[in-house]
Every structure is written in C-alpha cells, then in structure tokens.
Amino acid sequence: MTLKQLEESTAYLKHKGFDAPELGIVLGTGLGKLVAEIENPIEAHYNHIPFFPLATVEFHTGKLIYGTLEGKKVVVMQGRFHMYEGYDLIDVTYPIRVMHQLGIKNLFISNAAGAVNLNFKKGDIMLIEDHINLQGGSPLAFKNVAEFGDRFVDMSEPYDLKMRKKVEAIAKRENISLQKGVYASVVGPQLETKAEYRMIKLIGADAVGMSTVPEVIAANHLRLPVMAVSVLTDECDPDNLKPVNIAEIIAIAGETEPKMIKLFKELIKEI
After folding, report:
1. Would you call 71 helix, strand, or coil by DSSP?
2. Has UniProt tagged this entry with the keyword Glycosyltransferase (predicted)?
C-alpha cells in the first residue's frame, strides 16, 4: 500500500460525488438494510474503485454508498473484507484508510457474532468494549507503516468511550436491550470447535467473530474514534453444541437489524 494508491482511490470517489463525509459505517453479515435509509445515495462498486479489493462473500454486496443520514453526510461499506477470503490485513483495512482520506471523523462498525457468554442470547446486541485479536497478524505490520501514522499504536481504549456512553443512553431511552462485552476475532471461515469455544471463553471473550478487529486497529492508527456492535446470532455452548445453520444466522441478524439501525441513527443525530 502506498499513499499514491490511497490518493487515486480517493480521487475516484470524490469525482463520483463523495464530498466530505462526516461518518463512515461498516455493515456486517446480514446487516445491510441501513442503506435503504440513506437519502440521495451515490454508489461506487468495489470493482470500479482503483486499488480496492473485491468482495467475494455471497451475502456481502460489495459497494460504497455515499449520501445523507439523519442530516449528516455518510459513507457506508455494504460488504466488508475478511482474511478467510484470502485477503491480507492491509487489504481488509484499505477501505477504512480510504474513508479517512475522504474526511470521516467517526467510524461505526457492525458484525454478526456468536455468543460465548451464555448469559447472552441469540438476537441480543452487544456493544463492544474491548477485543482480543486471534487472527495471528496486524494491519500495521508492513514496512512503510510510518508513512501513515505511528508504528506503535496505543490500544488502551480502542473503542471510543464517549460514543459508548451515548449508545448505552440511547439503548436505555429506546428500550433496546444492550449487552456489553469483549469481542474475539478469529480467522475462520470454519466455525469453532467445542474446545475452541471453551478456550475463547476462558481467555475473557463474550462473543466471537471473523471481522472488526483489523478495522478497529487501523482506525486507532488513524486516530479515528470508533464504535462497534455485534448482533449475536447464535449461542456457542460447548456442552450443547449443534451443527451451525448459516441461513438461521442470517435470519436472526435480519430480525435484530432494526434495533441496530435505531441505535446507529440516534447516535448519528447526537455526534
């Protein structure tokens, strides 16, 4: 990755009308309906944006959408990139750097995850307070990283405390049940074994998924405040583990999505 590549990607989007967005949003698996709320949308498919990776997951549509949401200019990633698709972590986080170049001041992230904390139930929303990186790498581990920011990035509070407090207040006001916890990110795409779920719980995670952590690390590198939520789509009880049903996971994400959209829209009004 070079600054020249980032500048070319950004120039293409500006030419299409992506004008000074205030907020970036990354939508997770089964969580794409927020885009229907965007006014005056402009779309840019990933395969048309210079140096962008291509989305390969069937339920990730693969485009950036720019427009207005709750009176603010936003750019939304409908479809994200994962290590399990064969990308490296620099590819996975490239869109975050492009959105930052466009001018975003805050970043929202959503994902679908499995509940390892058995007090949490499928259909719950979890506000991510901290994370554990189990992906075996870093999006900052490349030679010329110092051209883009500090090599050694502080991660004592990777998820913006002010936005987290606002989300908690909104959830209380809107009567949305909100869990809080630690998200563990694995490579995938295979789901976890019983022993792996036990390990993930033992090391302090409340939920597990295959995304989000690389984007959050990149955002912290850019000093970009970030807020992230997990929609919990299955309960990962190693003592009662049943074969995974991907269709059911997508369906539960879809059922919970309106509550997530409400949280996001109310937070957009307040930042």
Report:
1. coil
2. yes
What tokens does 17 get?
Answer: 């009308």
Q: Are 257 and 110 in contact (CB under 8 A)?
A: no
Mean pLDDT of 235-253: 89
Write down the pLDDT at residue 55: 57
Range of the domain at 94: 3-270
CA–CA distance, 183 with 126 (Å, rounded to integer): 9
Structural contact between residues 219 and 96, judged by C-beta atoms closer than 8 angstroms: yes
Nearest CA-CA partner of 197 in 161, 167, 240: 240
53/135 Cα distance (integer angstroms): 19
Q: CATH number for the domain including 113?
A: 3.40.50.1580
58 has a pLDDT exceeding 70: no
Q: What is the DSSP string of 121-136?
A: -TT-EEEEEEEEE-SS
Which residues partner with 226 through β-bridges?
Answer: 107
Tens of pLDDT along 171-191?
A: 999 999 999 999 999 999 999
Question: Looking at residue 79, what is its pLDDT?
Answer: 87
Total of domains in the chain? 1
DSSP type of residue 203: T
> Which of the 8 DSSP states describes residue 115?
E
Both tokens of residue 96?
């975050």
Whole-model pTM: value is: 0.95
Confidence of residue 248 (pLDDT cuts 50, 70, 90): confident
Burial class of residue 262, CB neighbours in 10 A (0-12, 13-18, 19+) = middle
Task: Give the span between the Cα atoms of 69 and 97, in whole angstroms.
Answer: 21
